[in-house]
Write a structure and sequence with these properties.
192 residues, alpha+beta, six-stranded antiparallel sheet, 6 strands, 32% helix, globular
Length: 192
């Protein structure tokens, strides 16, 4: 099946640089070349009473590095997360995810948690994730919002080994900024 691709939306640009991510956070590989697959994840904090949020952390990792990170997760954690996803899909009546690329509205699609359906404006924080190839976002693996309730449920499914791996990734590649420490320390970073 061919990939359905769209230009990288501004929402997935690096907030720090105001343009698409160019290099893998882990290995330094250039990401914008055709044929280079990678994942972008961001965590957003909303401010009650205001109609905006700020990025807590953001990163882009090539598919090879993403696979290495997942290999660091315990089999127990991977199985638990797989069951969680399958349960959510069962609750959605096994309906396939269908996107009409001609009429696709990214803002509408990314207005609520993929797992729980909560509106992002009602959340304190959420993560946004998508897959890319070069300078295009892949739509056959649609972008998604992971809301705080879903993050909490997923975090409960992680083994101590996986929690240690995720904390190690955070400390090594995201840095221990005060805001990250305040908002994430003790919480689990969910890498999809």
């Amino acid at each position: 099946m061919d990939d359905y691709r769209i230009d990288i939306p501004d929402r997935f640009y690096s907030d720090a640089e105001g343009k698409p991510f160019e290099y893998c956070q882990m290995c330094g590989k250039f990401l914008l070349s055709e044929g280079t697959s990678y994942v972008v994840e961001k965590a957003i904090k909303n401010y009650k009473g205001y109609d905006f949020g700020s990025t807590i952390f953001e990163f882009a990792v090539c598919l090879d590095c993403h696979t290495q990170v997942q290999k660091g997760m315990s089999e127990e954690s991977l199985a638990n997360l797989h069951r969680y996803y399958q349960q959510i899909m069962a609750e959605k009546s096994h309906q396939p995810i269908v996107i009409d690329i001609r009429n696709f509205n990214l803002d509408e699609w990314l207005s609520k948690c993929f797992f729980k359906g909560d509106e992002i404006g009602e959340m304190n924080e959420y993560q946004i994730v998508a897959q890319f190839n070069g300078n295009k976002m892949l739509m056959n693996m649609p972008p998604m919002i992971i809301g705080e309730k879903a993050m909490e449920e997923m975090a409960e499914l992680l083994s101590d080994k996986t929690i240690d791996e995720m904390n190690g990734f955070r400390e090594k590649f995201l840095g221990p900024s005060p805001e990250i420490e305040e908002l994430i320390h003790g919480k689990k970073l969910i890498l999809i």
